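Question (not urgent): is this output format expected?
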Amino acid sequence: MTDNAQILSEMNDRSREVFRRVVEGYLGTGDPVGSRTLTRTMSEKVSAATIRNVMQDLEFLGLIQAPHVSAGRIPTQAGLRMFVDGLLEAKLGDEDRDRIEATVDATESDVAAMLDRVGSALSGITQGASLVLAPKHEAPVKHIEFVSLAADRALVVLVHADGHVENRVFVPPPGQTPSSMREAANFLNSLVQGRTLSDIRALMGAEIEAHRAELDGLAADLIDKGLAAWETDGDRGDRLIVRGRANLLAEGADPEDLERIRTLFDDLERKRDITEFLQLTEEGEGVRIFIGSENKLFSLSGSSLVVSPYMNADRRIVGAVGVIGPTRLNYGRIVPIVDYTAQLVGRMLSGPNTRG
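Got this back:
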């Protein structure tokens, strides 16, 4: 049993209700919740003094705190975590479901356009900023070609079996000749049929070693360099779609809030290895919630991320959708929205009509 689960199980009904009402009140208004307010909403009639005693106990446990000199209390990050793990009641409303479904057409053939619409819809529905991590193209490869552009630049052209074509400029090993480029391309094309780029990358090292005597050293270097150009840390074919940034700025009347949001945007712009979002979600298929410093990408901005992976027809995680907002998110509404959106995108990608 985790520490939070143990604390929750040891709390009596009154302590649990006070804690839940403090959190829900804060999430609803952003204001501290005081003992007098709670006396009017508790299911049993208790005095303000009794509630203050309960709140002191909750504060000692690190679940709530008093901001500045306020007489009221707000949840701590630990308190929010315990609330979303143990007390959150999440239900998808019919109106939210309809708005999500309206953005996804079962006959859609353009995945990129669909994901753009999903991102815009998520930000509009939740009034936060949405994140959509688009899947990289993993169709089998049909043909690879290397084209010399200059002494220090070359182009690798990748043609997929479904007609999708990708191009990337990279720096080749010194001394490449037209002959070594043809040799490298011929070698790769003997391997690619029916394999994805990931499959080829896994196979390539062993094949180069086995055929090194037949391959010119330059050609072997070019093969490695050319394929590595598609696997760099900076860009692995994934695309991050961010929508609704203005929604977050609209929340920040306080200059400190505005500065935190700008920090978040800066982090997003600088974060080139966006596949981290996939890594964050791979521990489970459902929605994951990262509050404040639990996610290093948003630690400085004090934001929360609600994210869920989506899968292809092979049940492999290929992307993720999520919502960013202040820690004062309406988790009970946003969690099922993100969950349902991810399920819907997965179903669309598993259909026979979609293409990357």
